[in-house]
Amino acid sequence: MGWNYTDKVKDHFMNPRNVGRIEEADGVGEVGSVACGDALTLSIKVDRKQDTIVDAKFQTFGCGSAIASSSVLTELVKGKSVADALKITNQEIADFLGGLPAEKMHCSVMGREALEAAIADYRGEKPVASEDEEEGRMICFCFGVTEGKIRRVVAEDKLRTLEDVTNYTKAGGGCGACQDEIQAILDEIWGSEKPEKPKPAVEKKQLTNLQRINIVQEILDNEVRPLLQRDEGDLELVDIDRAHVTVRMTGHCSGCRAAGLTSNWIQEKLREIVDPTITLEVLEEAR
């Protein structure tokens, strides 16, 4: 696979729990943005007498790791007191999934921030993350990450390198213009302390062609087509030749002005789950 995902991550991605939005929720937390590639809304229902979370649901626009992290988060918080739910860390979310690739740790951070925002909404307070970020200036304009957020995540997760910061916040992962500023923040926080040695990378298993075909088909059927069908569009898988996938847009998706954005999103999703070298060819429906 493109990333070394555990079976738990794949299970919660393919079969996410608690998808949706709670009507008359006691607290709602919204973090991220579609423009930045990740957005998450978490809604919670609270037994006010016991101050216990009795239900939680999520809606997300993001990668497989974002879906899996959000799914697990809703499972972790249900039945917990609000105080105990606030103690859940992004590392616990990742650990529950059996680990996430370093490059996807920002998905667990996003889940933790959505939980904090939902509980703050329930309590009528301002989320801690929002306070930090409003006080800081914008560092990464590509992904909308402020100095306040970088400082908070660096301190909480003991991040020591520029790569760590990018993995946990996405900051510095776009044009790269902010990387010197991020490094300056790290130098200020940690001084001359040497960063810990990175853990050795786990060797990735190669997929057989049959496995690749089955996974691509499953992603298209379960994750892509339902979204297209909401707008009376659809697609069909035409061919898979190693890392080259050909699909045909049908219905309202055929000839749509936003077809380019849609095809980019599909390609990134396939690269995320299956193989980072995948290329997507999109054919128009025959008229």
What does this structure look like?
The chain has helices at 7-14, 64-77, 82-85, 90-96, 105-123, 128-135, 147-157, 162-169, 179-190, 209-230, 259-273, and strands at 27-33, 38-47, 52-61, 138-140, 145-146, 233-241, 244-251, 279-283. It is an alpha+beta fold. The protein folds into 3 domains: 7-125, Sufe protein. Chain: A, CATH 3.90.1010.10; 133-190, Arc Repressor Mutant, subunit A (Orthogonal Bundle); 209-283, Fe-S cluster assembly (FSCA) (GMP Synthetase, Chain A, domain 3, 2-Layer Sandwich), CATH 3.30.300.130. The chain has a 3-stranded antiparallel beta sheet with strand order 1-2-3. The two termini are 36 Å apart.
Which characteristics define this entry?
287 residues, Sufe protein. Chain: A, Arc Repressor Mutant, subunit A, GMP Synthetase, Chain A, domain 3, 3-stranded mixed beta sheet, 8 strands, globular
Cα radius of gyration in angstroms = 20 Å
Count of beta strands: 8
Mean pLDDT: 83
**Total number of domains:** 3
The stretches of 5 or more residues where confidence is low (pLDDT under 50) are 200-204
Treating each run of at least 4 consecutive H or I residues as one helix, how many helices?
11
CATH architecture of the largest domain: Alpha-Beta Complex
Task: Return the string of H and E elements.
Answer: HEEEHHHHHEEHHHHEEHE
Biggest sheet overview: 3 strands, antiparallel
* Distance from first to last alpha carbon: 36 Å
Top-tier CATH class of the largest domain: Alpha Beta
Give the strand line-up of the largest sheet. 1-2-3
Q: Estimate the global geometry from the Cα principal axes.
A: globular
